[in-house]
């Protein structure tokens, strides 16, 4: 697919985030060996690749968790250094991390608004608006197809999918300019998955730039505008929607290695 | 997406009573412990323990400990320890005493100056912990020794060789700020109540209880404010988040460093408040002040339901934890047991109080 | 009739446990109901609260030690106001009367330290260690201060913990790094005196370094008897516990009270007397 | 589908595990409201259902983590009470939990063999056979398509998929009679997924009973012999392979609620 | 599935030196701290500190602390605390002393009997913690008080009023087991070495160092065994797992309860070993033995790299942590500093040692 890479050259819009030749080393482990990537407003850019390819590490440098060992980040055209995830958030980047970044002992509402709590009243009586926070949380969760028993259940006691939905709903709620989703549908049921995909589609149409990581080719094809494949810390290339078929994409995601043969309906895409 | 499912009563919930709901809160477990201890002393202690003066008597140490315990609890909820609190009491006491006695400053200058120095030490503690990534246990432990040692040296310098600095009361006589930090509040009211016979008086006519010791008021006010901050403000949310999972909190945009440093400052200031109150009250300070108070504060916080691993606990819990601790330590002197057995009783009562609290909570909330 | 004793020494401190034994003996003999109270560490704030607690119980007599007159003064005055007869013991002979106590039993730590210093100076000491197992405890600090004054020569305070192994190692370290040390004063016989003797032996300076210690312990007395240590300073603290209770009993019963303070020490126990008191010490009487 | 339930009545083999009317309450929360389920040797029984339906809670009672509030567990026909997961393991049940049950600070090998370490030598010199443990771990991981950098990397620093693969490889390695997999493929790449599905197929053929939880209808259909659908703590019924189509199954998994409409290739099964 | 990918050199790894690999181990950080402290004292302390007798002198308290610290470290790795260690030293000392002096038992009976009682108390601690789910901090804290108080009461009963029980040495003179638990080992060798002039002697011809104090040998042996258990046995794996994540460990089949209870027994037995050694050596025991040792043990374990949250640490780290702590506390007496500053230096040196250790590790292993 290396020959298909120039396909992106034709794009006009300046990217909101442009990551240039990012490298990231952990001690003696090289997780990223020079990855370039950009995303423009109103598109959904899928980041695909084998397990351990470096996808999560890459988006973590984008959202201020890791500092790149080498390489540059341009935000809206200007070089930018995010010192903490809070900086990235203030710039309008919201992320669903693969590990969800939630506090098990705290309630759903408190996790939802963690770091950006709605307040009411004036100092010194400025306080959290719990009523509003609870309502918004329940509403946002219902939109994604989860009916919580109550907004004060501890996140640690939620089911895997319920928990993931909290993280997605939160990111969607706060994702002003860029929304990064690291395998957001991995634990979701069919109904919740289709809701999330529909949500991605909706926010993209509202002009938000979406970075979507998934292992499911069908999900990627359903909402993706461009597809970038990582393998062992390097880019294999980027393709536009329509330039590539599901089977081609699947082969690339497997890192070029052969897959076990399966009977039945799995002949096509997993 | 428009047709969002309506909110319906959920068939997956059993009904639960108000009691159950209340008992799920960490602080209310500590209340159960406090009640158990009270009942124990009602049966075993001299009845004078629960007279007005008896209550003030055990509430005073409880309040002094409690101010430290609430600060320690908030820091523990944020996932860090401050072992330098006790030494900080001695050190702030020395600084404050020296300001007042040696330099003759009025309180309106001496108190803010002492707090400023304490806050700076808090920032130092916090910064070292966060910059190096060392456990706060070990960093503040170093300050436990350093501040204790510095108090000794400082006292010797300030007094010319003694480890006891006296004369604070004389130096402050007539200072208008003193009543806020020492002595008793509402003395007028109490004298009046004594006159009309509502409260007991000594043979010479003075009331047995001259008023409410100010530390008790500070203690209650601080517990209320801390609870409000923890439960009702964004900052409270950040404290829980920082202690629950530092990485997750920081990834979700919580300014973890600021939160933790502020709390190190808070514990240092709590220690300073206690130091100022006790130094003015006692009129003196010495190198042993606050000895082991860091552990007592942590103990009170843990009795009150704080987790040592962070992320869970409450200020009200620490409030009752301190009262339990104060009531047990002073209360035992109202009973008729031999002082040799004191520690055995103390340990047994602590264990009994937390076991009872735990038992009640388990009963009420069902398994798990 | 109820008498309450509040001191600054913990029940498991070897010195104070003897005081407490004296209190108990007096209680048995007089038939009075006597309670002994003390804070868990040297803590003046807590001690004041314990006195307040005692006053609340309206006892027929109160015995207190006064290591910090500023901190404890108000509580003691409150007791006097409440009409409770107060006798002070051990520390506080200088302020006892002023605070309204009937009399004082015992003597100043400072005086005792001074006495020890004078004696050790007489024995030819020039360079001394004062081994303090609880730095910051004012009454121990005063022992060292008094010692410094009486001794006149060079005195260094060596802070240690309560742990005998620790004390031995530290004294040994001090002796090794300073060959001039010829005198050691311990502030507690069991915790400091005994290990200090061992340390002196271990560095081979037995006989060249005079070891003395406050208070008594059977082990240290044996060292004195064997000539390994110079003397022990005894305050006869048993009396400091015993006498005030008896006095208060007499006062309550007949209104009798001695006219002046009682000095229970200091009393130097040297080689000739040591063996006689070993047995009593092993029982917690001396 | 309630009318299809009797389909299973025809089966002859006695089930290895039979769970009878299991209920599980957490305080005032009712997670399971009477679920019956069984699995026989050599079959793959898929447990499907919406997020929060109670699947994980159910298999946790099966593997000894939770004690059921009501109901009975029959193991090889005999009533059985598992006091701890270790009991269940000793009986031959191995589980991949949704949260993976791994210790982040410990190495891959130590996690792999946790609780059942291979030893060599005799007491008092009986010690862990690290060489063997490392080799076996690397081999088991490679079989599932993950090439680890080394067996001593801390699990906490592995990528999401790598970590999940460790948990699966471990369960397969120790799953003597029953293998329970709670959403094992959620974080896996396409190659790893097909490896896992192939592995399920292989162990089933070796006579192991497999319980497979997934949200992916295609995965379920690829390896499942029977399908049980849970909804809000209750069973909707059980169907045999061939008795039900992918679309029917998908509708049931969504709990009968409508799904968001999606353009493109997602018209069929998510 | 047959065609498994072959093992190839991985291009995603940078090469790293042996030093880096070594320094990643938690224990080797503590070694760096120990070296830093040694260098400091080489420059500031009297040269007698590093003579043979000087080394034995600071190693003896370090060994006694270290035996406790290694036990505490193993328990901390498993995620629990034992605050009753120090009181356990006093209590076991009393029990042992009473067995030997009051009941006249020979060591071969007294020692196993003492260990049995200690183990039973360890089981009690562990069972309460596990059955109630209360934090071990609070449960063992209760035992801190209870055992300390019980020691006092017991001593008074055993002696008829004194807080010191003596006569142990007389009662044991000639007991064949005594040399294993007290005094010095290899005395013959040392006398020989003294004769041929390899080691210093006093003017009268006896060697300055009569032998190696047995506690040092116990300490080293215990450190080696503990390290072996932690790193090379299944039980070691279980200890790390129990502390790393109790739920995950239990779900993976680790017998978490058994592991934790065994470790509570271990810490109680460590305390007993120290008690027996010190009681025989001193010939007496008193009510203050082991005071605050629980904190010193935890401090040494933390200096040695243990996490307070569990799941991480090492026995060798605790070994060096204890040596650092012993060297600093004793070493400062060899220097010319004003001893009033003792605690300030102690704190500063602790901080410096851990900071140095941390700095080195960060340098060597790269960021993170
Ligand atoms: N903190 C770390 N320390 C050491 N190695 C790390 C660290 N974080 C990630 N790695 C390694 O870097 C590589 C890339 O990890 P990353 O999590 O980015 O993969 P990924 O593409 O997200 O995989 P997956 O699809 O499985 O989530 C992995 O091999 C992982 O082991
Ligand atoms: N310990 C607990 N305390 C309280 N509620 C719990 C607890 N564990 C699970 N629940 C609740 O029980 C319900 C079932 O949870 P469970 O994890 O079994 O769902 P699941 O079917 O596995 O869902 P998913 O597909 O999202 O993993 C959820 O609504 C959850 O909130
Ligand atoms: Mg990932
Ligand atoms: Mg689940």
TrEMBL record, chains A, D:
A family per Pfam: ABC_tran
Record flagged with keyword Cell cycle: no
UniProt keyword Disulfide bond present: no
Location of the ABC transporter domain: 17-257
MF terms in GO: ATP binding
InterPro entries for the chain: AAA+_ATPase, ABC_carbohydrate_import_ATPase, ABC_transporter-like_ATP-bd, P-loop_NTPase
Classification lineage: Bacteria, Pseudomonadati, Pseudomonadota, Alphaproteobacteria, Hyphomicrobiales
Keywords: ATP-binding, Nucleotide-binding
Name of protein: Sugar ABC transporter ATP-binding protein
Automatic annotation (TrEMBL), chains B, E:
Taxonomic superkingdom: Bacteria
UniProt KW Translocase keyword: no
Cellular localisation: Cell membrane
Keywords tagged on the record: Cell inner membrane, Cell membrane, Membrane, Sugar transport, Transmembrane, Transmembrane helix, Transport
Topological relation to the membrane, as annotated: Multi-pass membrane protein
TM region(s), chain numbering: 28-46, 58-78, 137-157, 177-199, 211-231, 261-283, 295-328, 340-360
Stored InterPro entries: ABC_transp_permease
Positions in coiled-coil regions: none
Its biological purpose: Part of the binding-protein-dependent transport system for D-xylose. Probably responsible for the translocation of the substrate across the membrane.
Protein name: Xylose transport system permease protein XylH
Organism: Jiella mangrovi
Phylogenetic placement of the source organism: Bacteria, Pseudomonadati, Pseudomonadota, Alphaproteobacteria, Hyphomicrobiales
């Amino acid at each position: 697919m290396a020959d298909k890479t120039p396909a992106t050259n034709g794009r006009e819009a300046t990217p909101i985030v442009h990551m240039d030749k990012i490298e990231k080393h952990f001690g003696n482990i090289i997780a990223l060996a020079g990855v370039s990537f950009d995303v423009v407003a109103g598109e959904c850019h899928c980041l695909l690749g084998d397990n351990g390819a470096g996808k999560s590490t890459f988006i973590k440098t984008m959202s201020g968790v890791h500092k790149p060992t080498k390489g540059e980040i341009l935000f809206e055209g200007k070089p930018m250094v995010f010192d903490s995830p809070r900086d990235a958030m203030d710039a309008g980047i919201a992320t669903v991390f693969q590990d969800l970044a939630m506090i098990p002992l705290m309630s759903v509402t408190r996790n939802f608004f963690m770091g950006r709590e709605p307040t009411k009243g004036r100092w010194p009586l400025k306080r959290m608006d719990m009523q509003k926070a609870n309502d918004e949380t329940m509403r946002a969760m219902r939109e994604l197809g989860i009916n919580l028993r109550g907004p004060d259940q501890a996140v640690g006691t939620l089911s895997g999918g319920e928990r993931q939905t909290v993280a997605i709903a939160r990111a969607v709620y706060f994702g002003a300019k860029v929304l990064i989703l690291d395998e957001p549908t991995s634990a979701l049921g069919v109904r919740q998955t289709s809701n999330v995909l529909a949500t991605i589609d909706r926010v993209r149409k509202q002009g938000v730039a979406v970075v979507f990581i998934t292992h499911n080719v069908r999900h990627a094809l359903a909402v993706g505008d461009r597809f970038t494949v990582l393998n062992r810390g390097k880019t294999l290339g980027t393709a536009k929607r329509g330039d590539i078929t599901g089977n081609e994409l699947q082969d690339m995601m497997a890192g070029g290695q052969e897959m076990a043969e399966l009977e039945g309906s799995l002949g096509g895409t997993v | 997406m428009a047709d969002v499912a309506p909110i319906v009563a959920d068939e997956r919930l059993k009904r639960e009573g108000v009691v159950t709901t209340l008992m799920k809160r960490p602080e209310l477990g500590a209340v159960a412990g406090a009640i158990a201890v009270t009942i124990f002393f009602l049966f075993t202690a001299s009845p004078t323990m629960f007279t007005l003066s008896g209550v003030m008597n055990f509430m005073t140490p409880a309040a002094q400990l409690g101010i430290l315990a609430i600060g320690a609890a908030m820091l523990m909820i944020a996932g860090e320890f401050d072992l330098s609190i006790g030494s900080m009491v001695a050190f702030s006491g020395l600084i404050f005493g020296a300001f007042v006695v040696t330099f003759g400053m009025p309180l309106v200058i001496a108190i803010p100056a002492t707090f400023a120095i304490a806050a700076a030490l808090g920032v130092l503690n916090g910064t070292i912990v966060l910059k190096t990534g060392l456990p706060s246990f070990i960093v503040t432990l170093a300050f436990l020794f350093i501040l204790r040692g510095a108090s000794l040296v400082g006292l010797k310098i300030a007094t010319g060789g003694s480890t006891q600095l006296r004369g604070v009361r004389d130096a402050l006589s007539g200072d208008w700020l003193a009543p806020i930090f020492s002595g008793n509040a509402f003395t007028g009211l109490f004298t009046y109540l004594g006159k009309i016979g509502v409260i007991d008086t000594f043979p010479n006519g003075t009331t047995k209880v001259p008023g409410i010791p100010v530390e008790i008021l500070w203690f209650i006010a601080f517990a209320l404010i801390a609870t409000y901050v923890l439960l009702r403000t964004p900052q409270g949310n950040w404290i829980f988040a920082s202690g629950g999972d530092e990485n997750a909190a920081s990834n979700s945009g919580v300014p973890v460093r600021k939160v933790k440093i502020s709390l190190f400052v808070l514990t240092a200031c709590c220690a300073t408040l206690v130091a100022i109150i006790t130094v003015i009250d006692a009129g003196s300070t010495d190198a042993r002040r606050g000895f082991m108070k860091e552990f007592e504060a942590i103990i009170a916080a843990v009795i009150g339901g704080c987790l040592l691993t962070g992320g869970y606990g409450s200020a009200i819990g620490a409030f009752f934890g301190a009262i339990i601790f104060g009531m047990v330590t002073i209360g035992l002197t109202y009973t008729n047991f031999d002082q040799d057995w004191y520690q055995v009783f103390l340990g047994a009562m602590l264990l009994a109080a937390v076991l009872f609290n735990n038992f009640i909570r388990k009963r009420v909330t069902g398994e798990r | 009739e109820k008498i309450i004793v509040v001191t600054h020494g913990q029940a498991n401190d070897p010195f104070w446990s003897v005081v407490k034994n004296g209190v108990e003996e007096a209680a048995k003999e007089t038939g009075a109901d006597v309670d002994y109270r003390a804070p868990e560490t040297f803590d003046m704030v807590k001690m004041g609260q314990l006195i307040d607690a005692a006053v609340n119980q309206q006892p027929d007599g109160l015995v207190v030690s006064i290591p910090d007159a500023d901190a404890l003064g108000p509580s003691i005055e409150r007791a006097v106001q409440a009409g409770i007869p107060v006798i002070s013991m051990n520390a506080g002979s200088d302020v006892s009367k002023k605070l309204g106590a009937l009399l004082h039993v015992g003597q100043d730590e400072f005086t005792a330290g001074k006495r020890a210093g004078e004696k050790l100076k007489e024995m030819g000491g020039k360079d001394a260690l004062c081994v303090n197992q609880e730095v910051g405890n004012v009454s121990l600090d005063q022992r060292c201060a008094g010692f410094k004054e009486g001794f006149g020569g060079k005195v260094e305070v060596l802070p240690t913990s309560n742990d005998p192994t620790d004390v031995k190692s530290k004294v040994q370290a001090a002796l090794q790094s300073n060959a001039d040390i010829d005198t050691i004063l311990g502030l507690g016989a069991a915790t400091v005196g005994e290990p200090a003797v061992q340390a002196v032996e271990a560095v081979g300076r037995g006989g060249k370094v005079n070891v003395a210690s406050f208070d008594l312990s059977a082990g240290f007395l044996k060292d004195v008897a064997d000539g390994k240590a110079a003397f022990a300073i005894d305050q006869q603290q048993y009396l400091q516990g015993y006498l005030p209770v008896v006095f208060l009993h007499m006062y309550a019963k007949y209104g009798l009270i001695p006219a002046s303070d009682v000095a229970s020490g200091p009393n130097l126990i040297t080689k000739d007397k040591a063996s006689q008191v070993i047995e009593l010490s092993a029982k917690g009487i001396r």
